[in-house]
Structure formats: structure tokens, C-alpha cells
Amino acid sequence: MATILFGMLPHYGHHNATFKLARDLVTRGHRVVYISIDETMRAQVERQGFAYQHIPLLSEECLKASGLLAGIGRIRALRDALADGERLRALIGPLGGDLLLVDVGMAAFAVALAPLGMPIMLCNSFMAHDKVPNVPPLTSGLMPGHDLIGRLKVEAAWLRERLRGALYLPLLGPLGLTERQIVRHIAARTGALWGMRPHGMRTFGLGLGLPEIVLCPAALDFPRPPAPHLHFSGPGVLEDRKEPAFDFGPGGSGRPLVYCSRGTLVSGFAGHRATLQAVLDAVAGLPDVDLLMAVGEHIDPQSFGPQPPRIRLVRHVPQIAALRRAAVFITHGGMNSIKESILCGVPMLVLSSPSADLPGNAARVVWHGLGLRIASRRITAEGVRAGLIRLLGDGGFRDRMAVMRDLFRTEEERMPAVRIVEDILSKGSSHSTNGRAPGLPRITPSVSVFCEDVVWASGSRFCRSAGNSRGLRRFGRSIDHHASRLSHA
Known about the structure:
Distance between the termini: 21 Å
Strand content: 5-15%
Helix content: 40-55%
Oligomer: single chain
Mean pLDDT: 80
Low-confidence stretches: 429-489
CATH class of the largest domain: Alpha Beta
CATH superfamily of the largest domain: Glycogen Phosphorylase B
Number of domains: 2
Largest sheet: 7 strands, parallel
CATH architecture of the largest domain: 3-Layer(aba) Sandwich
């Protein structure tokens, strides 16, 4: 029996993506412990029956402080705490970890924990996002090109990613907050760098030459050549995930149910309320359709005013249970939501936001014929209504969903994630040494900073306004907001 440590970003999506793997590992006799510097995800993790260990690297005052300077100070404090090798060993060593699965966006943690001697594997809750020929970055809504023009558009999208990163170097570089600077700082203090080599350009984070498990089926990706460090794991959805109790009511109206949810992160974005209003207006013109809408924690359902009995607005809905009742799923396009929708056989209308991997996920839904998409700037009640009418009336979407669901099941059987992890365990700590390495090779300038959510947003609204004071104020507020939620392995 091995002890396997999970260190994921403190968001529901990142943790939910790992629960199937964690459950399978426990079933095989292993011990699983989720570790974090704060308590953000404790309730959700313990609800699934897994251990959650708080690692007190930062004081409560530091975690709760607000303001731009406090946010920057918090990131620096965490960087310095990770560089304190003796303290890390004292805090994490007693857990007896035999393997660390660390979020793909948190390269600094992998470097900091290398001296503990355990194997380290990157854990990717996105789709694979290394740059390969004719596969666009995840931040792009493009699909693979069928001709020279299409291929040039894909290359142009990767060039935009590189330029966006370069735009932020003058802002983040002097503060020492780029991901490369943080990794170098920790490596210099601990001597922990073990000859890591980035795999090339990526949409998010640094690969660092580590093995990487992609918590998503290869069947859902664009055509991609195999890579020795990438291990696709299958759907990895814990279909009996424990959720808070919810009363769905008697049902039996005979009308198709449209389920709408835009995820836990997107529900806090600007424009979320307007999108929900467009959905309400669309369904108002479809009297033969029921609607169940999860508005998220940031909006009061009552603020939309009275609704007819066939339209129900709540803050949260157990998603898999809702999808089993639904005929169409209106989603933001998060990878977990897409995987769950496929396993339940429900066609999707993706109302995509220009953040993180959402544009790339939406493109894959359309590429495989699993649904339709509407970009955020084009969302209208008329467009949503037209999309719902097409999805409800065209049986081809459900047929293609059934094919993809079968592929999901087959892939789960052929390449279960637990076998990938046990293979890394059997190889021992070949991916880490305690010796001092000469340092990082040259890394392509990246927009990545230690506060990963700022990385995601920088590909959209922040970079477009980086040259004005409003953009700088927005950037500062995001550092403050997201630095307070940092979690680590």
C-alpha cells in the first residue's frame, strides 16, 4: 500500500476531476491524502471520504489580508515558504508520501517538494495543452486547419499566446512574480532542480520534463500525436460523487428539461448575470420546455423576479443528478461539465467565456458534433432559443453523444488512471534527485505567474487593457482576489 498525496488548485473543478482516480486508488488499497495551505476545499474533499491535511505555510492574517500590496506580499511569502526546505520536510515528511500528484499549473510546488525524494507527477484537469502541429491553444476557439490557411491561423493563435506573455513581463518581472522567476528562486534556495526541461510551449504552466496524467479522454481531443510524457486517463468522472441534498420535485411534466449551469468560477465573472437573463428570455419563448438553472453563489435567484412554475432558479444543483433528467445542457464549457454531459448522453449548448480553457473546450464539442456553441460577445435570447430548438429537434446530436459515451467507457477500461499512477510508483523516484542541477534552461517567456487564475484571465480581458490604468486596477484586484485562494501540494 502506498500513500499518494494530491495537491490541486483550490477550485471545485480541479478537485472534482481527481475524485474518481482517488476512489480507485483507495479501492486498490492505497492511502490518499489531499494537502493544501488553506481550508477552502476541506468540506468537498471530506464529503467524498478522503483525508484532507492543512499545511500551515502562511499565517491566517496573511491569507485574509486584502488589497493589492497584500496580494503581492502573500505570493512572495508563499514563494519564500516553499523555498524553506527544512520547514517543508517537517510539515509534509510525516505524511509518508510515496507519490505526489501536483496540479499542472503549480510547477513551483513540484520543485519545492523534489528534495523529499518521492516521485512527482503533474495532474492536468484540462485537456492536453502542449503545442503540437495543427492543434490550437486551449485559449483559442479555433479548430484544426484543413488547408494551408487553416494551419496558418493555428500558428497565429500560438503566436498570440507568446505575445500575451511578453506583454506581462514588464509588469510581473520587476516584482519577481513570473512562474520562471519563482521556480528559479526556489531552486536556488533548495538546490532541488533535477534537470527539468520544459516540453516546449504550453497554454498553461511549465511541463518541466515530468510525467503528466491528463484527466480527460483522448477521444475528446483534436487529433494529436502521442507524447511520451502524456498519459490520457479516460473520463475519470466519479458518477456517485457526494453532493448536498437537493429536492428535484415530483417531475413528470412531460416537457423536456433544459438544465443550465455555468460552473463555480464563471459564476463570479462579469457578464454572468446578463448571460443567465438571456437564457431566461430564450426559454420564456419556449412554453413547451422546462428550465432548471443554477445561478451560482454570487447571485440571488430571487433577484430575477417571479418565474412561471416550469422555470426554477436555485444557487446550486447536484450536476450529475440534474443531467440524468435533462434533454439539453446549457454550460460554460468546463471540462468536467463536458465529460459529465457526455456520460449522461445530453447534448450541449456551450455559452463560452474567453477565459482559461473554455474556448478550446467549446471548439472540441463542436468538432465532435456533441453540441453547439455561442461566443460570449454574441449571446442573445434569440440565439439561445434557436440553439435549443435545434438541439431538441435534431436526434443526430444524441446519436453522436452515444458514440462518444461508448468511447469514454472503452477508454476507461483500456487505460484506467490507477494503472498509470501505479506504473509511476513502480518506477520509484526516478524523476527526482536531491542533487543540485545547473539550473533551468531557457524557457519561452510566459504570462504565467504563481497566481494561476491571473494567468488564465490574462489571455482575455486583462491583456486587452494592460496598457491603461483601468487594466492595471483590474490586474491588481485579481492578484488580491486569487492570491487569497492559493492552494498547494
